[in-house]
Specification:
This protein is an alpha+beta fold. The strands form 3 sheets. Strands 1, 2, 3, 4, 5 and 6 form a 6-stranded antiparallel sheet that branches. The longest helix is centred in the middle third of the chain and has 20 residues.
Length: 333
């Protein structure tokens, strides 16, 4: 379907249902959504910016729950609550001319429709290099503030988001099976990943779900989804948010940090919110789970298969082997 869609034309159709006046579209990218920056002018002719999202993921998986209206609405509920309840600067949603946060538009020459949302623009810039230890600590503080909010927030009626649990992890593993047939992942390495996923699943199912360890998580707070403005870390792109263990959320971010910065992140996190005693072994399980999830995402993109060909053996030989032997690895290069 994607090759037949004129995204720019579709975006202009969506904008016609909002009070934004004349606007210029700047394509930002295509991942979980097709995303545009909307450059417009307000009543005083000052420049204003917004984010337009067309909810159509680049990885067309069999599970389309992420595009369901109730699921999208729930993400927007959390963003609205964060905007209203905290001092965090987040991309909260804007209503269309009908008073709705979601705009559905028909795709040309088809009976299909796509859900679209418009968010305020958050000022800031992504980092062009690995964070400094101070910046890594600030991102840790930011995540702790998100977890603090969700641990106290009473979910609205009808709130629904996907779960990051053992079933989701198993689905990611199965998404890698096709790469065994093509030779991108060896039979031996896939067997190691199967073994580690089983052990991680045992860890997950043994964990009790409490208000202090389970709740809404961002689930994708990587270097593309946090920005800095005047020395302040700010979160963006909550498209992958869902229910999960807070240690799972931490693990997904640590996956994108050098080992020396992982301690700084955790120190920043614990300056706001304490982690459970003896958390490292559980966190390392979630770290490997986050690695499998990342592999599954990359598996859907042929241009990333060379990276997987090189990286999967490293993970199985270095990290998985240490995990099986009970050796810590999270803070080692």
């Amino acid at each position: 379907m994607e090759g037949k869609i004129d995204w720019n034309r579709l975006a202009l159709t969506v904008l016609a249902q909002y009070n934004v006046g004349a606007a210029q579209l700047v394509f930002l990218g295509h991942s979980e959504n097709v995303t545009f920056r909307v450059d417009a002018r307000d009543g005083e002719n000052s420049a204003t910016f917004k984010v337009l999202r067309i909810h159509y993921p680049i990885a067309q998986l069999s599970d389309h729950i992420w595009q369901q209206q109730a699921v999208i609405e729930s993400e927007l509920m959390w963003l609205t609550a964060l905007h209203q309840d905290t001092d965090l600067v987040v991309p909260y949603p804007l209503q269309n001319l009908s008073g709705s946060f979601i705009t559905s538009v028909a795709i040309d020459n088809t009976s299909a429709t796509l859900n679209c949302t418009l968010l305020n623009w958050v000022n800031g810039s992504t980092l062009d290099s690995e964070p400094t230890p101070t910046q890594a600590g600030q991102v840790g503080e930011l995540m702790a503030q998100l977890h603090q909010h969700t641990s106290l927030w009473e979910l609205p009626s009808g709130f629904t988001r996907p779960k990051y649990d053992w079933e989701q992890l198993h689905t990611s593993l199965m998404g890698l099976r096709s790469l065994v047939d093509t030779g991108t992942i060896s039979v031996t390495d896939f067997a190691v990943l199967e073994n580690v996923v089983q052990q991680i699943s045992n860890v997950i199912t043994a964990l009790e779900k409490t208000l202090t360890n389970w709740g809404l998580i961002h689930a994708d707070l990587n270097e593309n989804n946090y920005i800095f403005y005047a020395g302040e870390a700010r979160p963006i792109d909550f498209s992958c948010c869902g229910f999960g263990y807070y240690l799972c959320d931490i693990a997904h971010t640590l996956l994108h940090l050098f080992p020396e910065n992982r301690r700084s992140f955790l120190s920043g996190y614990q300056s706001v919110r304490q982690l459970p005693d003896e958390y490292q072994r559980i966190l390392e399980a979630f770290f490997l789970g986050a690695t499998v999830n990342n592999f599954a995402f990359l598996a859907s993109q042929p241009n990333e298969h060379d990276y997987l060909l090189e990286t999967v053996p490293y993970i199985t030989e270095r990290l998985c082997s240490k995990y099986f032997q009970g050796e810590a690895f999270l803070f080692e290069s």
